[in-house]
Amino acid sequence: MGRGSSAERGEEAGESVTAPAPKVKEGPFGICAVSGLPAIYKDPVTGQGYANVAAFKELRRIHSGEQPCAAEGGDVTSEESEASAPKGPLSHSDALARLSLL
């Protein structure tokens, strides 16, 4: 009754109707800038929080002046690679793809 017709919800126009992504609960050091996961560790050199070893390696690679892995042929567009963090939580496979580990 209160949901409206499918046309009102945008289903007929070819738009997908999905629920918003759940918010990621911040870790003790915020959100990891590489993976978008809760940052449970803090890099003493850069001062940035990170979620796992792969994110730590990527932070150090960027800190040393090298290009991020995504710039070396990953599937992340230049617009996404310039962003400091993903817009929402990533699945495990998406996080690995972002780190070019697959």
What is the secondary structure topology, with strand pairs?
Layout (H helix, E strand, L loop, with lengths): L40 E2 L6 E2 L2 H11 L14 H5 L9 H7 L4
Antiparallel strand pairs: 1-2
Explain what you see:
This protein is mainly α and 102 residues long. It has a domain at 41-98. It is 23% helix and 4% strand. It is built from 3 helices and 2 strands, in the order E-E-H-H-H. It has a two-stranded antiparallel sheet. A hairpin with a 6-residue loop joins strand 1 and strand 2. The longest helix is centred in the middle third of the chain and has 11 residues, at 53-63. Mean pLDDT is 74; it is low at 74-81.
How many alpha or pi helices? 3
Strand content: under 5%
Structural class, by secondary structure, is mainly alpha
Find the count of extended strands (DSSP E, 2+ residues).
Answer: 2
Gyration radius, rounded: 17 Å
Sheet with most strands: strand arrangement: 1-2
pLDDT averaged over residues? 74
End-to-end distance: 46 Å
Residues in helix, %: 10-25%
Task: Provide the low-confidence segments as ranges.
Answer: 74-81
For the sheet with most strands, the description reads: 2 strands, antiparallel
Sum up the overall morphology in one term: globular
